[in-house]
Amino acid sequence: MVIGLVLTLTISTMVARQEAVRRGVTSGNDLTSNAAYVSYLLDQELRSAGAGFSQAVASNYGCTLLVSRDSSQLLPSPGAFPTPFATVPQSPVLAPLMVFAGAGAGGSDVISVATGNSGLAEAALSVVPGTAAAGQVRLTNTLGVRGGDLVLVSQPRAAPPLNCMLQQVGAGFAGGSAEVLTFGGRYGANVINGVALADFAVGNTTVSLLGNVTGNRPRLQLLGIGANNTLVAYDLLQLTTGSQALAEGVVDMRVRYGVATLPLNPLPANRTVANWVAPTANGYTAAALRAGTAAAQANLQSILAVRVGLVLRSDLAEKDAVTNSTLTLFGDLPTALRHTFTVPTGTTTQRYRTVEFTVPLRNVRFSR
């Protein structure tokens, strides 16, 4: 009987240990899979930032977005954006990528990213001077433009604020030799936030093709950490209604800008990342980049890459602590650029993982 009890105890202990190891391996594999998925997802969202409007930096970078949908003003937003983006300014400006430091849950960063998706041309189309009027503008030609396209009407200004107006090409429009581009549909509007389409009749007004309301939609999004450690996206144009949960288990997100030395080399092929800066650095805060000045546009144009650091956590809690009390992101950068994540009390029994990756902003590199 004694021998049997000893064998039973031994076997039970071995089974318990094996089960603990199995749970740990499964938890680690789940973290690895989740980290790979989130990294891929963010890389896809950020890599094409600036597409469709980066060939008219003076007109588009830093301009205040004026958007109407169904005859109601959408941007600037009449109210605060939903959580976790409630502290993001209600009047977003157009920029390939911008970071709102500490604006997300737990002091995490919020990323604003804008990507056109026209698939036709990246060059801005010049509007014939003096032809912007209610419901239309005149171009030298409208080749490739079709009904339902979303376009950006903008112009450089001698002084801020810069404004740019989103318009929708009228249903049934077929571009070609026709010079008059007519607007209509859900996103068509003549006056938004006190600015009229006719106000763009003076100056070097341009039209940038962003995409279409169906199929190849543009993506103007906010990305951040929401409740329950969820990576959340919010579509500023509301082509996708409400906030969208993208991934679970993400507890922190931090970003560093990879910037080129100013003034920029006129040859895009020679533009390279000279150093990394935090989104709290002088000239690179969200407030500074939103200023609409020539200096703000130059700084936006100098951001050639972003380095994203994530902290992920498993759901499974172990019997003993398996995580250190602090984790470090960007450990290979200078001390001032590193970020220390403090593991919340009582969660050191859960497995954590840090992930870092760099995303080049190819459209910004070739911007003009």
Report on the structure:
The strands form six sheets. Strands 2-1-8-7-12-5 form a six-stranded mixed β-sheet, with no helix packed on it. The protein has five helices and 21 strands. The mean pLDDT is 90. The protein has 368 residues and is α+β, with helices and mostly antiparallel strands. The protein has helices spanning 2-47, 57-60, 286-289, 294-302, 362-365; strands at residues 64-69, 72-75, 97-100, 110-115, 125-126, 136-138, 149-154, 163-168, 180-182, 191-192, 195-196, 206-212, 219-225, 230-235, 243-248, 250-259, 275-277, 303-317, 326-329, 339-342, 350-360. A hairpin with a 7-residue loop joins β14 and β15. The radius of gyration is 25 Å and the shape is elongated. Pfam families: PilW (PF16074).
